[in-house]
Amino acid sequence: MPSLKLQNGTALVTGGGRGIGRSIAERLAQLGANVIITGRNQTLLDQTAAAIRSAGGKCRPLPCDITDLHSVTSAAQMVQREFGGLQILVNNAGIGGFSTPLHELPPEQWDAIVNTNLRGVYYCIRAFAPMMIAARRGDIINISSLAGKNPLPKGAAYAASKWGLNGLSYSVAEELRAFNVRVTVVAPGSVHTELSPHEGKNTSKMLQGEDIAHVIEMLVTQEPRSFISEVLIRPLTKP
Question: What are phi and psi of 215, to 5 degrees?
């Protein structure tokens, strides 16, 4: 049964239908939150929501394209109308790109990566942060990557999006801390999901979705007098 740590709180997880997002949504539901999961695949959203509800949690699937400002704004209006606000926003949705040198990368692939991994976070913060400012409380957690700290050959666009996300996050954290809104970057290394390339890696040694979910739990349940600005997560043994 869910605990009471986040009872009556509302959380939204982008890209919540699978992978890291699903693990985070499951953990927040276990903590008692009303969880909203967004994504573009209705089937995956419905499957995840059903699994969370069958385990005793509360979950609402909400189709949303975070690269479309109108779609994000409509989602925010629904959250305000039906839940009265939002306490936790996890910007998890992202796409990869790990096989093409930058000089060979098609412009449309660059746009897809940057629009999802960076512009989408901007849209979500723009839509949901005002609710937190009004309530003078909230947590915004942006899922970045160690690729936002280190070179990534054949993944320059992905790395650029994550370096940009880090800079965005540190700056927004300073803008919002005066309103008791905490902004944190979580930067995992190799995670066993469909996004991360597995060739030549021992997937049993890679980070799992539940490892990231555990960190999210620590962040949203810490004492209100503090906030953690950045978490770097690595596998204990290199895969």
Answer: -65, -40
